[in-house]
Amino acid sequence: MSNCAIVGINWGDEGKGRMVDLLTRDYDVVVRYQGGGNAGHTVINEYGKFALHLLPSGIFRDGVVNILGNGVALDCENLWQEMQSVTEQGVALTPNNLKISDRASLLLPWHRDLDALEEARLQDKKYGSTKQGIAPFYSDKYQKKTILAGELFYPDHLRAHLRDLLEWKNLTLERVYGAQPYTMDQLTDWIADYGEKIKPYVCDTGAWLDDAAAQGKRILFEAQLGALRDLDYGIHPFTTSSNTTAAYAPVGSGLPGAKIDEVVGVVKAYSTCVGEGPFVCEWFGERAEALRKAGAEYGAKTGRPRRVGPIDLVATRYGVRMQAATNLALTKLDVLDDMDEIPVCTHYEIDGVRTDKFPFPAALASAKPVFESLQGWKCDISSVRRWEDLPPQARAYVEYLERNLGCRIGYVSVGPERDSIIVR
Ligand code: GDP
Predict the structure, then answer these.
(1) How far is the CA of 361 from the centre of ligand 1 (A)?
(2) List 21, 41, 230, 312, catalytic entry
(3) 3-state SS, one letter per residue, for the chain
(4) Per-residue pLDDT tens over the stretch 265-291
(5) Is 41 a catalytic residue?
């Protein structure tokens, strides 16, 4: 396969990072095409354990070129911190293996401020933002009020552009939120610091990718979050502010004409959700705590306990469709090892009507889950590496999901380490 996208099918945190880390062995280039420092991909490999927020998960492989595409929210502060910590753990980062699109927009200091100010204003109606400035950043991008990374190479133009943006943004900060305005000195200091740090990595990644594609290089597109958080197709308004679907990968990467041959959708063996919004299969109390503990379900970025519940086939089928997945990776099957019975949500009941179709977001509040139960396997499967060595109940669970999702499950992950995988 020459081009592949690895995407989330659900709410995010499905284990995309571990799948990219595994599959990069077959690819030459890894591109992050959307999102910013607001979520984390956890990767465990020979260098140690990493929570990557912005760096593509291919940085651990020699010879793989990693790209932050134009669709990304380029948060230089987080990126630089991450680059430092990865380098300290022995991973070499150079402009040869890390390239940043000159068309990526910079997430500026006021984006984070505005996120926090707006969440505070919303009080109990807040969306559960990670306060990384993502929503204010993308709104500004669509208003064409951002600085492109490439402008760092045009200092006079950059200064004038910053001055215009400053004047405009201070109106909102002061008049809407009653907050402190920014000064030009603060902005130019920030650019002199972080802009200079990332500048060596900034280039025309679109042209670079075009050449790479012409040379037959294999490209892996890496998404953040999942289909249910997609700006257009997710659970509005509890989505993120960018498109997490595979269809956006060519646009957000700098290769708008790219054809994606394979879409690997990552699905967790049960459901988790961080933040606010409808979550039909949510468990509470002791059984929720037990599942959360077994799966170590605490946010990679925020440390927040994730909401948990059994797998939701209604939402997952929708995610498979929105991602146009051609292959699925089922992760964290080992987390279900201790369960006697494994509930699976097959339908929703909405106002007395049973449906297996994912409804319009506003209808989710009154949706009740309908469950079937499958038998558990009650043994440790974390050392299993071959399909035929899985207990029959575990195989039956995977096959049941496969049938009900209408997509083949080509990978079954039974642990966080790179080799804890069954390839079917
Ligand atoms: P991502 O953002 O989709 O990459 O997901 P996260 O990194 O937020 O969450 C996935 C978590 O599950 C990470 O801590 C992984 O190390 C871990 N993980 C991934 N696959 C497996 C698995 O098959 N079994 C177990 N026990 N943990 C896994």
Answers:
(1) 27
(2) 41
(3) CCEEEEEECCCCCCCHHHHHHHHHHHCCEEEECCECCCCCEEEEECCEEEEECCCCCCCCCCCCEEEECCCEEECHHHHHHHHHHHHHCCCCCCCCCEEEECCCEECCHHHHHHHHHHHHHHHHHCCCCCCCCHHHHHHHHHCCCCCEHHHHHCHHHHHHHHHHHHHHHHHHHHHHCCCCCCCHHHHHHHHHHHHHHHHHHEECHHHHHHHHHHCCCCEEEEEEEEHHHCCCCCCCCCCCCCCCCHHHHHHHHCCCCCCCCEEEEEEECCEEECCCCCCCCCCCHHHHHHHHHHCCCECCCCCCECEEECEEHHHHHHHHHHHCCCEEEEECHHHHCCCCEEEEEEEEEECCEEECCCCCHHHHHHEEEEEEEEECCCCCCCCCCCHHHCCHHHHHHHHHHHHHHCCCEEEEECCCECCCEEEC
(4) 999 999 999 888 999 999 999 999 999
(5) yes
